[in-house]
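User: Second chain of the day. Same drill as before.
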Amino acid sequence: VELTPEQIEKIYEVLESMGIDVIGLEPEVEDEEEVEIEVDITIPEGIAIDDPVRMYLKEIGKVPLLSGEEEMRLAKLIENGDEYAKKKLAEANLRLVVSIAKRYVGRGMLFLDLIQEGNLGLIKAVEKFDYSKGFKFSTYATWWIRQAIT
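Assistant: Same format as last time:
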């Protein structure tokens, strides 16, 4: 059975609402088409947000997204131990963390805490990503970010 990311997210939400924690192994990522992801980092209505969070969102919005080629180049450098490449790959995907964290607001954690936990998942994804399998980093990182937040 092939599920869309939205269907998988819904399954996670239903299981979580039933009190079932989803933990697991590294994700099994299927081959996917190259798709540019435009991440929405605007704050939904009704979410109280203070100045430090707003400043953080403004700062990460300045970091340019990576092309597939740039992502692969950084991943190759990371494989060779390049710490600067790790930093660049993580920084370019901070908006992805915010986008995922927004879905978990109102479940008992502050928005900033959700972002912080998601960033830890992003760092883990940067360390474990294997570009040679041919998948986009954002697909792989999404799993690690969700695991860190939930």
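Confidence is low (pLDDT under 50) at residues 25-36.

User: Great, on to the next one.
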